Amino acid sequence: MTTPVYAHAELVLRFEAMVKALAALADQLRNSTLPLWVPLTEPERSDNIDPRQKALALYCDLWHQDHGDGRRTRSCHGLIAASPELRGAADQANQAKTDFRQLLADFNTAPKTVLKPLNLRPNALRDTLGYKGLARLHLKQCYRLIPVIERHPQRVGLNWYTSGRSIKRLNVSQAQQLLVSMGTDKTHVQLQLDKLNRLNPDCPLAQIQPQAPLMRANLRYQTSPQRQAMNLSLPLLFGYDPEQPFPEHNTPSLTPQAQRQRQIRSDSRIDPEPFLPSLRIHLYL
């Protein structure tokens, strides 16, 4: 069993390893003379921000800014030609990020006898970090990996994907528990409970959660396999071939357009009108 003292020390060691690996990556990128493309905002152009420096800041960004929303990450697409040494440094940084995330997952499932001396509660990752003076870490930005590929793309098509959603299947009892947790003294909750109570207990329900817009990159290569697709929240490091030109690419906006109304498919099995609006729960057709 992991002792509290060891758990404290391991948390700091893995955090420091992640910071050290990112610093090594930053050194490699700072000294690189290979070409890159990282788009700038108008204020960044006005301030004469160096695109390479912007990429460095993105890769090493682990912290909340002011009172920012912890559910959102600061992101930017881009393409960066990378030597084997730079790609190796990115791989090491990604491994350090994975190790740090795994340790916090271990804390999350550790026996209470270990958690109690750390002043932790189950699922209290913020408390874990706060205990070690790291409370302002942005976990999503710590966890996200730097995109790295070994091949040199011929073309990269970039497009915002704004219609993503996740669907969770629930039963009537689970939906009732969620509503009750909102407070049965509230009129709108009571009205929705009344609607729910009229359903058959075996009636399946769908809880829909819209997903944040994603930048999708569609890569094309000269040799097989010729196509690859990936999400891109950070500039992509690709293996540079001096015999090939810098990849052709489009220049989408840095922010997604207003999300379009999702078109209802003719074969959709979910009623587009929410049955329980407070929980984004729909009936199956």
Helix and strand arrangement:
Layout: H1 4-31, E1 36-37, H2 42-46, H3 51-59, E2 79-82, H4 84-109, H5 112-115, H6 125-131, H7 139-143, E3 148-149, E4 155-161, E5 165-170, H8 172-181, H9 187-197, E6 205-210, E7 214-220, E8 227-231, E9 236-239, E10 248-249, E11 281-283
Parallel strand pairs: 2-9, 3-9, 4-10
Antiparallel strand pairs: 1-2, 4-7, 5-6, 6-11, 7-8
Helix pairs in contact: 1-3, 1-4, 8-9
Tell me about this structure.
By secondary structure, the protein is of the alpha/beta class. It is 37% helix and 17% strand. The chain has 9 helices and 11 strands. The chain has helices at 4-31, 42-46, 51-59, 84-109, 112-115, 125-131, 139-143, 172-181, 187-197, and strands at residues 36-37, 79-82, 148-149, 155-161, 165-170, 205-210, 214-220, 227-231, 236-239, 248-249, 281-283. The model is unreliable at 111-124 (pLDDT under 50).
Determine the number of helices (DSSP H or I, runs of at least 4 residues). 9
Using only C-alpha atoms, the radius of gyration works out to 23 Å
Low-confidence stretches: 111-124
Number of strands: 11
Order of helices and strands: HEHHEHHHHEEEHHEEEEEE
Main sheet: strands, sense, barrel: 4 strands, mixed
Mean pLDDT across the residues is: 83
Strand content: 15-25%
Percent of residues in helices = 25-40%
In brief, what are we looking at here?
The chain contains nine helices and eleven strands.
